[in-house]
Amino acid sequence: MSELEIAMGMIIDVFARYAGTDGNAQSLSKGELKVLMEKELPGFLESGRDKETVDKLLKDLDANGDATVDFNEFIVFVAALTSACHKYFQQGGAK
C-alpha cells in the first residue's frame, strides 16, 4: 500500500476505534469526540476549557444537526486541521 492509502486507512481506523463506544458505530457522540481529541490530538484541547471547546467543535462539525459527528463530518474536521497545519508549516512554523 502507498503512504496515502495507509494514511487514509489510519483515519478510518481512528474514527472506528472511538465511534460506537456510546452505542452508534456510525458517529461520534460528544463524549466520544472528547476522548478521541484527548488521545489523538492532546495539544488541541486547552485544560480547564475542554468542555467549552468540545461543545463548540461539536456544534461547528455537526452539519446535519443530529448532535453527533458522522464520518463525513469528521473528515471535514481532519481536512481542515491538516490544511491549517500545512499552512502553519509553510509559513515557517514555530520558530
From TrEMBL:
GO cellular component annotations of the record: cytoplasm; extracellular exosome
State a single Gene Ontology molecular function: calcium-dependent protein binding
Q: Where is the EF-hand domain?
A: 49-84
On the tree of life, the source organism's domain of life is Eukaryota
Gene Ontology BP term (one): endothelial cell migration
Keyword tags = Calcium, Metal-binding, Repeat
The answer to whether UniProt assigns keyword Repeat to this entry is yes
Q: Does the keyword Calcium apply?
A: yes
Pfam families recorded for this chain? S_100 (PF01023)
Descriptive protein name: S100 calcium binding protein P
SUPFAM superfamilies noted in UniProt:
EF-hand
Native organism? Molossus molossus
